[in-house]
Design a protein that fits this description.
By secondary structure, this protein is mostly helical. The protein is about 80% helix and about 0% strand. The longest helix has about 30 residues, at about 265-295. The chain is globular and about 55 Å long.
């Protein structure tokens, strides 16, 4: 770079702008966007239960193929119960069962809510068929096909709620639209692994212990990446109720994974670690939900990122003009 260009940059830094720096303020300090009207027990619970169901079907299929029949059956029943409760939570938040049915009248690929509704509509019956066949022992071929279908749909069921949340204008969710589905995937895997440890015999829980360790590692890495990307909005992930929940999630998930790896061969330790993983996953979903609501209610988390983006754009423009 030439001396002339560097000198020109120094002169530009010393100049006073003719137009004052843009300021972003909300009207009387009121929120810039409307916070979601979702109820935490319903929607955060819907997030958690859907993740448990979807990831549980994947682990159930693995147990089914490898001959771990007790664990496979328990996970199939768990996934059916979880998706049923998840749908009930969603319908309760919607207010009327007919509203869920109305969402199935049209398939809109660009709408995460529409895609999610159809996913639940397709996943529920195959999860039910897989569980029914496993419990009764009837129609094993049909049950095997349903188990495979549920496993194929499971990852989408476990993660689409992350896409749904990130598709909103809520700063703490939209700002991590790349990371949030991966965080939900890791959290769902931790929950399903925990369920396998709780309901399955210790002789069959080696894959669940391995999955728990990988899920805990992925959860920690993705959470760190999300906080870095959010910048100052990450305060909502670290403070108040959301911060307490997410710290508890990290401790429970890591503690559950370590306990499972070291002592998972003992029944009591396996159950304790499984419950910790389940609780950690629930805390993750409720913590992310609380962070989103907090970021929507405080106008600074909307206006300051706008100011930062403007500053970066201005700096880039000045650099381009100078060079």
């Amino acid at each position: 770079m030439s001396t002339t260009v560097r000198a020109g940059r120094r002169r530009r830094r010393g100049e006073q702008p003719v137009v004052p720096r843009a300021e972003f303020e909300s009207y009387y300090g009121r929120p810039v966007i409307k916070a979601p009207s979702w109820a935490a027990p319903d929607i955060a619970g819907y997030f958690f239960l859907g993740g448990l169901a979807g990831a549980g079907s994947v682990l159930a299929a693995g147990a089914h193929v490898t001959g771990r029949t007790t664990t496979a059956t328990a996970l199939k029943v768990s996934s059916l119960a979880s998706v049923s409760l998840s749908a009930a939570a969603l319908i309760h938040d919607l207010g009327k069962p007919s509203r869920f049915a109305n969402m199935l009248r049209v398939f809109k690929p660009t709408s995460p809510m529409s895609v999610g509704s159809w996913l639940l509509g397709a996943y529920g019956p195959v999860a039910g068929a897989a569980a029914a066949s496993a419990v009764t022992g009837r129609a094993p071929r049909l049950g095997g096909a349903a188990t495979g279908a549920a496993a194929l749909l499971g990852p989408a069921v476990a993660t689409y709620t992350g896409v749904l949340a990130a598709d909103t204008a809520v700063p703490a969710w939209h700002g991590v639209h790349r990371e949030l589905p991966y965080l939900f995937a890791a959290s769902a895997t931790a929950a399903a692994s925990g369920m396998a440890l709780v309901v399955g015999p210790t002789s069959e829980n080696a894959p669940a212990r391995c999955a728990a360790g990988l899920a805990a590692l992925a959860d920690a890495v993705v959470t760190k990446a999300a906080e870095q990307r959010l910048g100052m909005v990450a305060e909502t992930w670290r403070e108040d109720r959301a911060g307490a929940l997410l710290r508890a999630a990290q401790l429970l998930t890591a503690g559950g994974a370590v306990t499972a790896a070291l002592f998972g061969g003992r029944r009591g330790a396996a159950v304790a670690s499984g419950l910790a993983l389940l609780a950690g996953s629930a805390c993750t979903r409720f913590g992310v939900f609380a962070a989103g609501i907090a970021s929507a209610e405080d106008p600074k988390y909307t206006v300051v990122p706008q100011r930062e983006r403007l500053d970066k754009t201005t700096e880039t423009t000045e650099t381009t003009e100078t060079t």
